[in-house]
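Long-time lurker, first post. I've been practising inverse folding by hand and with some scripts of my own, and I keep getting stuck on stretches where the structure tokens seem ambiguous. Below is the full token string for one chain I'm working on. Before anyone asks, I'm not after the true native sequence, just a reasonable design that respects the backbone. If someone could post their per-position residues I'd love to compare against what I wrote down in my notebook.
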């Protein structure tokens, strides 16, 4: 597997990271993800390392780590990030993730910002008034250098959450600052693709949204290509370039993730969950589920319940 790492830039100063750790700790009383006063802004805490890779579906977002470290796998590629490296997702992706550095004394702490195409498009015009440089890679996940300036902006954003009026009036401005700094970073041209309607990334994102909303239906690649305004061959190339999977593989993983969530949250048996997400054969469902998650559905769900994994944790 190929590990992706950030290059260049000024690493955040330890004192500045310590401030962000202190602020995030106030908003994360226990392990989990907490939405703050501003929609789309989340504080995350994990106090133990993961024993294995956890499969989940992630949405377009930026994650800035204050403490600890995590690894994400997409296909055969792995992406490591920590307090010196931020990670961004440009489309909805089924990934496997693992906390690799965390403890009760020094938990994994991170700030996550949801990324929206309209906002990225608005700010891209300001950052790149003469056009966006063409990125060499269009993969839907990328890692870039975290800087002291980004950490300081993240700290100011979290600090504003203590006052409702400040959060409402000022927090959106700080979010814009973080996004502008992200767009100006080494991975900025790749992030800018989120807001470009005619970019391959955004066209794939349109197809991904359709698959997400209709994952239980049979997939017609030529119709998806038409939805993305691409030829079938070009669509296949772009889709795999962004997600590392073919459209059919992508749908299969989404189906299995959703079936897992349904078994956890609605107490469905494996056969019912498989049918609900579009499988006609119970044996095929069990076989593909085992291949993805490492154990048969009934055994896997029993283990997740024993470990106290919440239903939303199976989806991301």
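-- Answer (accepted) --
I ran through it position by position. Result:
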């Amino acid at each position: 597997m190929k590990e992706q790492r950030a290059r260049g830039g000024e690493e955040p100063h330890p004192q500045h990271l310590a401030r962000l750790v202190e602020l995030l700790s106030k908003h994360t009383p226990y392990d989990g993800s907490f939405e703050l006063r501003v929609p789309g802004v989340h504080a995350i805490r994990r106090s133990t390392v993961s024993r294995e890779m956890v499969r989940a579906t992630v949405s377009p977002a930026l994650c800035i780590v204050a403490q600890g470290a995590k690894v994400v796998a997409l296909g055969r590629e792995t992406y490591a990030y920590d307090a010196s490296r931020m990670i961004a997702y440009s489309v909805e992706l089924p990934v496997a993730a693992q906390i690799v550095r965390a403890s009760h004394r020094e938990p994994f702490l991170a700030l996550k910002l949801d990324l929206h195409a309209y906002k990225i498009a608005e700010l891209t015009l300001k950052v790149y008034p003469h056009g966006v440089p063409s990125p060499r890679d269009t993969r839907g996940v990328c890692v870039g250098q975290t800087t002291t300036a980004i950490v300081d902006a993240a700290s100011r954003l979290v600090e504003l959450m203590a006052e409702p009026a400040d959060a409402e009036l000022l927090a959106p401005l700080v979010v814009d600052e973080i996004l502008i700094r992200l767009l100006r970073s080494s991975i900025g041209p790749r992030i800018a693709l989120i807001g470009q309607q005619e970019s391959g990334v955004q066209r794939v994102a349109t197809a991904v949204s359709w698959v997400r909303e209709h994952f239980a239906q049979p997939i017609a690649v030529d119709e998806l290509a038409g939805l993305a305004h691409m030829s079938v061959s070009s669509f296949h190339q772009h889709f795999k370039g962004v997600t590392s999977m073919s459209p059919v593989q992508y749908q299969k993983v989404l189906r299995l993730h959703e079936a897992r969530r349904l078994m956890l949250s609605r107490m469905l048996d494996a056969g019912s969950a498989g049918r609900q997400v579009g499988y006609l054969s119970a044996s095929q469902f069990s076989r593909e589920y085992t291949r993805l998650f490492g154990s048969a559905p009934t055994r896997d769900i029993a283990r997740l319940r024993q470990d106290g994994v919440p239903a939303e944790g199976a989806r991301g």
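A couple of notes from the structure itself: Confidence is low (pLDDT under 50) at residues 1-8. The first strand starts at residue 2 and ends at 4. Happy to go over any region you disagree with.
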